[in-house]
Specification:
The complex is a heterodimer of chains A (about 625) and B (about 425). Chain A contains 15 helices and 31 strands. In chain A, α12 runs antiparallel to α14. The C terminus of chain A is likely disordered. Chain B has about 425 residues and is of the alpha/beta class. A nine-stranded mixed beta sheet of chain B has the order 8-9-7-6-5-4-3-2-10, sandwiched between helices. In chain B, α4 packs parallel to α6. The N and C termini of chain B lie far apart (about 50 Å). The chains are: A alpha+beta (about 625), B alpha/beta (about 425). At the A-B interface, β28, β29 and α13 of A face α9, α10, β11, α12 and α15 of B.
């Protein structure tokens, strides 16, 4: 039998030497959750009969999409044979979000660990985001344990990818462990390796308490649950704690560990990982990266690395039914409790009515928030095309920050600066040309390129963020048959030749369709949008010109011809009730129309025109079902 | 004619009794009778009417569900009509018009149609100058059957000609030989019947020249009356499936508009007058009085499966399937499945949407304030005739093609159009 620890070390009184704190770095789909499931089972913290897939992923969206949005920590006992017989250790597995949007959260999770399991699909090799997180882990001086997963797959090529990993982190290909999260093969060897190789914490046992918050989750019943790693000292139940960034103090109502269900303890000792509950209702009062200390005996300096999450992408969200605006407002207030990165303010659009301009960490964040709003609050929403933050300097020297294209100033603009990112793309070598072509179209400049192995390449680019927020990732995926992966990080800003393209319906500007684009792309954007609207807007009683314009200069035009026939040919005895009801329905339908000047635009046209790609939308709809 | 899906409504009373509200103004309303004959030899691909082929019906469980027993069942409903109208306290009003539609009424022996007309005479009364029409397929009549109908009191026959162009008839799945149309028209004439021809335009694959040819063929028969309908691809029909699968092209409303305009021009040139959006008559006396009753809000009783009736603001509709219909009749109860008692708002809406279709137009005093205010704009847009306005709203040719939009404007549900040709366009283009 596997060495399930019979006498698990007690929380609050576990010597640091018996603690191992680690995380798993892996790409989406590389099997992190399945491996975590096996660990929970093999260490005996979850009984076989209670096991379910992706045990740690709590939100429906997480389970459905197979991704982890919020991280969590689990304490697992594990015994290893030593010189003086078997010895029980406490393993804290800190789950990290895998997506690029949540880099900051990842970095806080890493800061709570001494080691990381680098988990790579033995059939696919390392992906860009994993690489980015690996570099992040190396910067934090974590001990890396390379592991190839899914060795049970027929397509697995463990030798090839072991060589690739060895090349990346140094060491020998043989050092790579080979496991199957699905069958459990090699998982106990991995647990042994964690105990053997990952250093134990080395905090100051007696010093003032310092614990780093690496996650903070709002629970309807318990309020905010804060996950911490105690770096120095000790935290006890019922004591008063202080948040070092805000100086706010709270009483510790409950303190404990997750294994994986919450278990209150007599406190958390140095090096330990667990949760705190103080009764606060808003995750903003318990921010990721902040340092928790004892209010009576506070530490002098906070732990390094705290940063406020900064929104990178903005989009307007509007209820399709205008009367849902208060529902949307309440829904955002609720989501905010659980998402410190979510920022929003009310916004009014002439075309879409009342809504909110919302800042997101990135596109996935946007999608998740939108989906949660629609699913959990039963809202139908229109989102405007995602936009980034532009800094505009006017000729008179004044500065304007633009988060909504319709706010782009019309007067004399001296220069416009846009955010740029440093992107890393991993791709099979055969797609180098394709990726270069795409990046060039998106105004990218190549920084460098390295072969990870014979046929896999890491390409580094500087790209304007605006060019990747729309459909870059979809394009990258489809052009490389799904093989390429992408990671990016903010890399400052650059001045660029940007213009605002407006769309006019019968001479009236439609604010929701305005976009800030590079001058060279203004024409193609204008033509595309005007063409799309001509298809989407039903014919009216009069001819409707659809124009794209930069300022007063029209750059593209389409025409929606006037309707010529709008009559039911037959209207006899049996048709009359039907006809009247049809007319009454049309009258109701008018309520769902937005008037732009004299032009009636159905909501559906706005939605369709604003959704980036019909294909990807359709496939999403399908996957929902 | 009865449309495919019956409306939602309230349950109809099993005895068919009418509320006393129907008495108001009854003396000013004429009574028409519509008899629905729900049988066809074959079903056409575009047709969504309530009609059945022998194959679709299968062996009848009740005599009244079959073609052979149908006349008897329908006669029972006519008797019921006489009782119900009487018991409601309505004044004695002999039917001023009777219309046999379908389906294909002439699939029944002429004697059946004549006996049903006899039932109308007995139970409701028939005005001496009554207009009695039957629809007919060109291949379902003979000189003898037409003579028999005329002798039995029929005054008018409406042939489903649809087109004179073989490939168009083939797409519509009409089986008659176009050469037969002039022949049956001549037979009807000889029998002393007035003749109407029904045409359909906008069939996929029909060119403007095809339509002109059909029209020329129709006019060459010198009918007393012409109806021309844009083809509608109704949901659930075979043609609908063919369009969805891309086997035949979708309808083009611009093409339909052009064909309507062509038809109206040709008819005007040949001396016909439009009196309703889709109907033209050689003289005012040739207009179909029965159909005019629908648009003026008269009373009519619809007999047969799926048939609709209207008496003084109460509309009801019969169960759809011949078997269900026969069962109700056999049980001695009303075949009505549902009904609605129109409120004032609904009556006002119907008044506008029906009357505006007529060449006599809609009196402005029947409109609300918003509607009256919109009339000048409708005139300016060229949709409403300037001479009749502002006292009457009479549609121009262009307005007829946009009649539904005109109705929405007149009801204040939609903005009045901008004056013709004035489209605000920003600088540049």
């Amino acid at each position: 039998m596997s060495p399930i620890a019979r006498t698990a070390p007690k929380p609050a009184s576990t010597p640091q030497e018996l603690i191992r704190n680690f995380c798993i770095i892996a790409h989406i789909d590389h099997g992190k959750s399945t491996l975590a499931d096996r660990m929970l089972q093999i260490t005996g913290v979850v009984e076989d009969r209670l096991m379910r897939a992706q045990y740690l992923d709590r939100m429906d969206i997480e389970r459905e999409r197979g991704i982890t949005i919020k991280s969590q920590a689990v304490r697992m006992p594990w015994a290893v044979d030593g010189s003086d017989g078997p010895k029980s250790y406490a393993l804290n597995m800190i789950d990290t979000p895998g997506h690029v949007d949540f880099t900051y959260e990842v970095s806080r999770s890493l800061a709570a660990c001494e080691g990381a399991v680098l988990l790579v699909d033995a059939a696919q090799g390392i992906e860009a985001q994993t690489l980015a997180n690996l570099y992040l882990a190396m910067e934090h001086d974590l001990t890396i344990i390379p592991v190839l997963n899914k060795i049970d797959l027929p397509a697995a090529q463990p030798d090839k990818f072991a060589a690739e990993l060895a090349h990346l982190i140094g060491g020998e290909p043989e050092d790579c462990l080979r496991v199957s999260g699905k069958t459990g093969e090699g998982v106990d060897a991995l647990l042994d390796r964690i105990v053997q190789q990952i250093p134990h914490p080395t905090g100051n046992d007696d010093g003032p308490a310092r614990a780093m918050i690496f996650d903070s989750v709002y629970d309807t019943y318990r309020g905010v649950v804060t996950y911490v790693r105690v770096v120095d000292g000790k935290l006890h139940p019922r004591e008063r704690i202080a948040m070092m960034s805000t100086k706010a103090t709270h009483e510790l109502l409950e303190i404990g560990v997750s294994s994986p269900e919450p278990e209150p303890t007599q406190g958390l000792g140095v090096g330990e990982v667990g949760y705190l509950i103080t009764g606060v209702k808003d995750v903003r009062q318990s921010k990721v990266g902040d340092t928790v200390t004892n209010a009576a005996r506070p530490a002098r300096t906070p732990l390094a690395g705290y940063a406020d999450p900064k929104p990178m992408v903005f989009s307007g969200l509007y209820p399709i039914d205008g009367s849902d605006y208060p529902v949307l407002r309440d829904a955002l207030d609720k989501l905010k409790l659980n998402d410190a990165a979510l920022v929003y303010e009310p916004e009014t659009s002439a075309a879409l009515g009342f809504g909110f301009r919302i800042g997101f960490l990135g596109l996935l964040h946007l999608e998740i928030v939108r989906e949660r709003l629609e699913r959990e609050f039963d809202l139908d929403l229109i989102s405007t095309a995602p936009s980034v933050v532009y800094e505009v300097t006017m000729e008179d020297g004044s500065e304007i920050t633009v988060t909504n294209p319709s706010e782009f100033p019309g007067g004399k603009v001296k220069d416009v600066r846009e955010p740029i990112v440093r992107a890393t793309i991993l791709t099979p070598a055969e797609f180098i040309g394709t990726v270069m072509e795409l990046c060039q179209q998106r105004r990218g400049s190549l920084l460098g390129m390295d072969y990870l192995s014979e046929d896999r390449v890491e390409m580094r680019y500087t790209l304007p963020l605006a060019e990747i927020v729309f459909d870059f990732f979809d394009n990258l995926k489809s052009r490389t048959r799904g093989y390429a992966s992408l990671d990016y990080e903010p890399a400052g800003e650059q001045t660029a030749d940007l213009v605002k393209v407006d769309i006019l319906l019968q001479g009236e500007q439609v604010d929701a369709f305005s976009a800030i684009v590079h001058k060279d792309k203004a024409y193609s954007y204008g033509t595309m949008m005007a063409g799309k609207l001509r298809e989407l807007i039903p014919r009216q009683q009069f001819e409707v010109p659809v124009q794209a314009a930069i300022g007063s200069r029209v750059i593209a035009r389409e025409t929606i011809r006037a309707i010529r026939k709008d009559v039911l040919a037959k209207c006899y005895g049996g048709d009359i009730s039907r006809k009247r009801k049809l007319l009454e329905k049309q009258k109701e339908g008018k309520k769902r129309m937005k008037m732009v000047g004299r032009v009636e635009v159905p909501q559906e046209a706005f939605i369709a025109a604003l959704s980036s790609e019909t294909d990807s939308k359709d496939s999403k709809e399908k996957s929902k079902k | 004619m009865s449309p495919p899906a019956l409306p939602d409504g309230d349950p109809a009373p099993t005895d068919g009794a009418l509320p006393s509200s129907v008495l108001e103004g009854a003396g000013d309303r004429r009574l028409g009778v519509y008899v629905h004959v729900p049988f066809c030899r074959v079903r056409c691909g575009y047709c969504d009417f309530n009609t059945y082929t022998a194959l679709e019906l299968g062996p009848p469980s009740l005599p009244g569900a079959s073609q052979a027993g149908y006349a008897d069942a329908a006669a029972h409903e006519i008797a019921l009509a006489g009782r119900v109208l009487d018991e409601a306290g309505l004044p004695e009003r002999p039917a001023s018009t009777v219309f046999f539609g379908g389906g294909t009424p002439t699939l029944l022996p002429a004697a059946d149609l004549v006996s049903l007309l006899g039932a109308v005479r007995v139970h409701l009364g028939l005005a001496p100058d009554a207009e009695v029409t039957t629809e007919a397929n060109p291949d379902s009549v003979t000189p003898e059957s037409l003579a028999e109908l005329a002798a039995g009191g029929f005054t008018r026959v409406s042939f489903g000609m649809q087109s004179a162009v073989p490939h168009v008839l083939a797409t519509l799945e009409r089986t008659h030989d176009p050469a037969r149309v002039p022949q049956v028209v001549a037979w009807a004439r000889d029998a002393g019947l007035a003749v109407s021809l029904d045409l359909i335009y906008g069939t996929p694959g029909e060119s403007l020249a095809d339509w002109r040819a059909s029209f020329e063929a129709a006019l060459a028969c010198e009918p007393d009356h012409v109806s021309a309908y844009a083809l509608v691809v109704e949901e659930g029909t075979k043609m609908d499936r063919q369009v969805r699968r891309g086997q035949i092209p979708a309808l083009d409303p611009d093409d339909e508009a052009a064909k309507y305009e062509l038809a109206d021009e040709m008819l005007a040139a040949a001396g016909y007058q439009w009196y309703e959006v889709s109907n033209w008559a050689r003289t005012p006396a040739d207009a179909c009085r029965h159909n005019i009753g629908y648009w003026r809000g008269d009373d009519w009783w619809g007999v047969g499966p799926g048939a609709h009736s209207h008496v003084g603001g109460v509309r009801w509709w019969n169960v759809k399937h011949p078997a269900a219909y026969a069962a109700r009749i056999a049980a001695g109860s009303s075949p009505a499945q549902g009904r609605e008692v129109l409120d004032d708002d609904s009556r006002a809406v119907e008044d506008v949407l029906l009357r505006v279709r007529l060449a006599e137009g809609l009196a402005a005093e029947r409109l609300g304030e918003a509607g009256r205010a919109a009339v000048p704009a409708l005139v300016a847009a060229g949709w409403v005739d300037a001479e009749a306005a502002p006292h009457r709203v009479v549609l121009t040719r262009r307005g007829r093609l946009l009649a539904d939009a005109v109705v929405r404007v007149l009801l204040g549900w939609e903005q009045a159009p901008a004056p013709d040709g004035v489209v605000t366009s920003p600088s540049g283009w």
